[in-house]
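During the second year of the project, the team shifted from modelling isolated chains to modelling whole assemblies. The rationale, set out in the original proposal, was that interfaces cannot be judged from single-chain predictions alone. As a representative example for this report, we include one of the complexes processed in the last quarter. Its constituent sequences, exactly as entered into the pipeline, are reproduced here:
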Amino acid sequence: MTKVVIIGGGWAGCAAAISAKKAGAEVTLIERTDLLIGLGNVGGIMRNNGRYTATEENIALGAPELFDVTDSCARHKNIEFPGHKHATLYDVTQVEPTVRRLLKDKGINILFESRAIDIIKEDKKIKGIVLSDKSVIYGDVFIETTGSTGPMGNCLKYGNGCSMCILRCPSFGPRISISKRAGVEDILGKRGDESYGAFSGSCKLNKDSLSAEIVEKLNKEGVAVLRIPEEDINLGKLDIKVCQQYALKEFAENIVLLDTGHAKLMAPFYPLEKLRKIKGLENARYEDPYAGGKANSVRYLSIAPRNNSMKVRGVDNLLCAGEKSGLFVGHTEAIATGTLAGHNSVRLSLGVPLLELPRNLAIGDIIAFANEQIITEEGLKKRYTFAGSEFFQRMKSTGLYITDKEEIKRKISRVNLLGIYNEKLI
Amino acid sequence: MKYRLECVDAGSEYCPCYLAETNNCITCSHLQGKQFCDCEWRGTCIYQEYVNNGYQKTYQREDIPVQVEKRESIGSNCMMLKIKVSKTLARQLKEPGAYVFLRGTDLPHYFDVPMSIMEADDSNGYIYISYQTLGAKTKKLDEDRSEFLLRGPYWNGLYGLKSLKKVSEDNCLVIARGIAQAPAILVIKKLIKNRNKVIFVVDKGVVGEIFIEDLIDGLDIRIIEEDVQSENGKFLIKNILRNEDIGLVYSGGSDVLHASVINMIDQVGVNPNIVITNNNEICCGEGICGGCTIRLSNGVRAKTCKTQLEARKVIERRVFDD
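Output from the structure prediction step:
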């Protein structure tokens, strides 16, 4: 039986584990921390704008599992906030345990608190992954979903230092780039000002520290928009964010809070003193990252070059997904790329042609488009998401943005890919 | 597989050091002038410490005057010193592999001689050191001085510290020969503290005496005295390796002894963790002078005064004249 080893238990890794398992592989998932879904533990925004289309595409392609979880753990459905329509906000405290049970029930072998630090390689093939305790996990095909965030030294050199985010590098140790270990140079994202990396785009406030009025509004409507005092408006801040879909003027002039269990503040960081000047936030404190008044994690410092089937160039048996595979933002993007990588890992082991999604699907187009852009200087400064920015504009202009589930299903059936991820290949 | 180096000082109060300032850090890739994080993690970010410290090294070890409380001649050509130090320093030195530099107060710095700690009394502030008089530095220590300059603590006197500190409720074989009886004491005490069963094979070596009897008296260990380089000794060690389910072997002595112990382990076909004494000529202890640099078989150069290395990797490059 093909043994697929996935490095990184974030959204992309979990998605890859499920699709590789469904295609018939024996799957081992290596996770550095004690939680799955990585930054998904503090995210929560689903189905906004073009993500709705991508979600329904992935479901019709045969991989509904993780979207079923995020839908079932929703606190708010079909809400609007500046620049965004029909969003679902999942409850960040519900999703991880649900995903964990799902993966375990599927018979996926999860190794928690296991940090990959190196590889064993023969010619252009990876034989095994060396863990920090020097034990080795051998496999036939490997999928790297280690992301591109941190560790501490990078967050300091390219940001404002470790802000104590959910990745908890000081406790669990740093992320290592597996593809780089395999001799493939990382690609680095840039900011508008040419510096490397980008800040994560949001922080979470402890809901109990907000005024009763704001809490009620959040619980009821899912969104609260609060005006920033004139003297504190800073438009320049938008440039440093990773989430360009939220880099809108409205987000500089207002504080936008979303209810994901915590109050998600749509800013990479915000000085506590200034934050507390806003009505209702007089007692506010950060829930994630703990030092959200000063800093946030820095991302996009470690992207692997890949083809549109998610196979890493230069290594025979390594695939990648999520942020590791491009300048992608978001859970939906991670799940969509992860699912494809997992499915293709089994194809790769069988020596059959890898699946490449057609460009008349939003998922197929973003995978190919991000790959075309990443080789250009300007493209390195952009982020690719179904939810906004350049790619959502592209979706709208090319007619890829569809919100009718049945139509999406018909489209996928026309390209003969309905339920492809459900096919057991071995 | 790339071999990343691990500095024994990383994460300690003496990190970051001068090597960080000069982009020669043993562990941190940023502080080697590289672009991104790629370190052998020690639970702390050296770069973070460096930047937070204003892009400077932290406080470094200095020479401090210490009093010799007792000087005792042991065996042939050997001396034992009892030195008064602060309780803090004694505590810092109460670790396997700990060492300090000593020299006479009137002598230039190049008389600094590295000395393994035999025992540390942290409730009263004493350390005990035994040495063999061999060259210019130790001969100058022999002069009847009551005061020395001491620099420390240093910790890289052993390779394999991680396995040594981790092993618990296991069977351990401790082999010590000659003057290397001294650093074995802290090793044995550490192993006992972690509820290991210790078999101690001790060899007088050229010192001609078991001078640590008082220090191991009353410890719950099995002691066997034998010439470990003799046929009998080798037979004994192999038997222990074969029959006692040994999880960790400590070899204290010359590199010839280390090579012979590793050889015996391979002959018997067992796979215990290996801890050995660091026998390289240590000169400054700070990774600056380069005097202790060795080249590993993969071409990596390592400063052995600070770098933790695998015992086998250190020994495989040594060439012996039998």
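The two ends of chain B are 33 Å apart (CA to CA). The interface with chain A takes residues 1-2, 28-30, 36-39, 41, 43-48, 51-52 of chain B (CB under 8 Å).
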